[in-house]
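Intended use. Records like the one below are meant for learning the mapping from a protein sequence to its folded structure. Do not use them to infer anything beyond what is encoded.
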Amino acid sequence: MHQKANRDVWSVMKVVTLIFVGLSILYPLSTVVIRSVTTSDGNATLQNFIKFFSKEYYLDVLNNTMFVAGVTTLLSVVLGVAMAYALTRYDFRLKRVLNVCIILSLMSPPFIGAYSWILLFGRSGFVTTKALEWFGWVFPTIYGKWGIVSVFVCKMFPYVYLFTSGALGSIDSSLEEAAENLGSTKGYRLFHITLPLVSPSILAGAVMVFMSAVSDFGTPMLIGENYKVLATLVYEQYMSEMGTSSNFASAVSMIVIVLCILLLLLQRWYLNRRNYCMTSLRPPQPQKLRFGKKLLMLVPILLVVVIALLPQIVVIVTSFKNCNGPYFVAGWSLESYQTIFTRMVRGIKNTYFFSVIALAVMIVVGSVTAYLSVRKRSLLTAAIDMSLMVPYVIPGAVMGLALIIAFNRSPFYLAGTAFIMILCYTVRKIPYTVRSASGFLQQMELSVEEASINLGVSPAKTFFKITLPLMLPGVVSGAILSWIETINELSSSILLYTGKTITMSVAIYNEVARNSFGTAAAMATILTISAIIMLVVFNRVSKGKVSIV
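Structure written out for the chain above:
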């Protein structure tokens, strides 16, 4: 009887999650696919794709996107792997502080980094004007492709660093020792043994960097100027006065989706060619260095960390500066904060209201989905799990466009409402919660749940009383990261918001576009502080046992 009840409860859960996935993810994305191969009149056509691949302007946009994402990924891998190797293999007293600072550099969206660079190195930036005034130096422009790449690398190399440092700290040191005993040099061991062993982690970080660079909207819009990428093209085609139609925007979105899927398939193909299983019973021990070598290695690491944290530092400092329109003047004040708490309260309230509701949905759906995918494995649960990961690998602008097209008519007229914002945040950020909860659940013994059910406790009560509390650290850890990503979300919000549903990230972008740097800095500071608070909560909940990525 218990087994039948168990099947009934989780059969219902499968149906409920399937309906959620179908309505919130598969249905919206199917509308993008249909729009991409139809005309505005509803007739089937490939003209949208022909238009894209036959015009030099659009091919240049595609090349720009691949260039920015490719160069960003390459530089992030070099920088992230080098720093991970240095901080895991050598003994530094500042190691824990540096690690926290690198994590903190992830706690703000890339467009805030672009905004900070404008304040420092823009045409009227502090460093630009002072360098010209004091030394007669003319700094290279930060606008264009290299400015975008610079902001992306400073923001995204921590992904590679965190993945790689975790792998380097847990590999079997006996493999390197055996190579050393056979006479191999340190450089040979590094490139032929160590790095190949951790290549899955390096590749995972690289994939995250590439997809983040492809999907980011704010940075290219702020400092790209005439350098267009696919994310900005989708926005312009659908939203701007120069836009043509949602059909062509959908075709561009499909090209972006195909790029991301091809990258994931390439990653899987590479990993399936090799076996990376090994024991971690003998992790490598950090080596002590002489003072001179330690200083020589520590100085560039500190420089990189300071540059990575520079956006947050600049934002916090400038939020207290006096402003006269777009210019900062002498003196300090709380005027910018007074302005946002009187004129922009709606954006602040919306940000936390939307994110908290989305977080609650992510915790419920994420916990149930993680349990189904780990404990009730089947083709259906595997399909649900995979479907929930789809919004993670496609740009926010694409997901936003999909939701607008899907829910802009009866019977689901949700465009312009708070509901569509919350729905977008939920499906975009839930993969963090699902993956973290699944990881914890895979480490739990099934016998605990079986014993509870055999003693007469219902399957539902067993889940809430036994299973969920045990997997709670993983659920909360993933949910916190989901929440941090939600409050910083811009790519989808810029398409979905209205005057009533504006969020802080959109307001920051609008303020920067209007050269209201003081109020933008004040709101960005609030976001940064919110992220830091949640990082502290994360550390308390996980007790250092769960990686933030």
